[in-house]
Amino acid sequence: MSLEIVHYNDPVLRKKGEKITVFDEALASFAGEMIDTMHKAMGIGLAAQQVGRAVQVCVVDLRPAEAEFEWKLDGASPPLEVFMPMVIVNPKVTVSKRAPLAPLEEGCLSFPEIRGTVVRADVIGVKFQDEKGLAHTLECTGLLARCILHEVDHLHGVLFIDRMEKEVRALIDDSVKALAKRTRAERAAAPS
Ligand code: ZN
User: Fold this and answer.
1) What domains sit in the chain, N to C, each tagged with a CATH number?
2) pLDDT digits over 104-124, tens only?
3) Neighbours of ion ligand 1 (CB under 5 A)
4) 151, 165, 167, 186: which one is catalytic?
5) Where are the beta strands (DSSP E) in the chain?
6) Quick check: helix, strand or coil at residue 67?
7) Does residue 9 have a cis peptide bond before it, meaning omega lies within 30 degrees of 0?
8) Minimal CA–CA distance to 44: which of 56, 59, 29, 54?
9) pTM (2 decimals)?
């Protein structure tokens, strides 16, 4: 089953996600639905806020992405097929001060057809739990690092438009305002 993706400026996108403390069947099925929703929308990442729930869960699947990046999951380098799609619960990201920065154009499923360049760290570490509550550590670079940073931002109510440089943000300002207006109108029209 797939879930409805909420668009900017739905208030839930600005909510900080609560930590997950119960790793039960309901969490596993929610994570499964998030994965279906991400795949159906042709996305490479999706955060719980984007389907209307402010909790610390996001999903990532970079198998379709044509990009070069590196990873170490729990100290090993398994093929992507083995651990993607990933369910990331309660993530804690660390970025070294010496991490190189890289610019890349990003999109977001909550901002249909809006894209803009965001500068992010190109190397990160992340500690997280999976849907069963097992702890993992991941070190990664490139698009995987970027995707996780983007999704973890969502879990804290931070959006990619907040990360853009002023000049980049200005270029999409009209589209962002129009989207916010559309979302407001849809919410007003939706049965509660
Ligand atoms: Zn996003």
Assistant:
1) 11-189 (3.90.45.10)
2) 999 999 999 999 999 999 999
3) 108
4) 151
5) 45-47, 57-60, 71-73, 86-94, 101-106, 116-121, 123-129, 135-141
6) coil
7) yes
8) 59
9) 0.97
